[in-house]
TrEMBL record:
This is MoaD/ThiS family protein. It comes from the Bacteria. Gene3D superfamilies: 3.10.20.30. It holds the Pfam family ThiS.
Amino acid sequence: MAAGTIRYWAAAKAAAGTAEEPYAARTLAEALDGVRERHPGELTRVLLRCSFLIDGNPVGTRSHETVRLAEGGTVEVLPPFAGG
């Protein structure tokens, strides 16, 4: 199990009520399961529209179960942004 930081941006930050929080998970799927448990409601809905960066690298269309998290890593939760 790896420990790191989840950072929320824009609508995800507003729905989580925090800019960041720790994770303890092996995969992105496990980390997001933890997020849904801690923040039921609006953030769960926002996550459906989000893209994710793991240590600066886009997850893209990879299955979240296959995306391994590193000790001390960072997960960025990026909702769609308007404008540029």
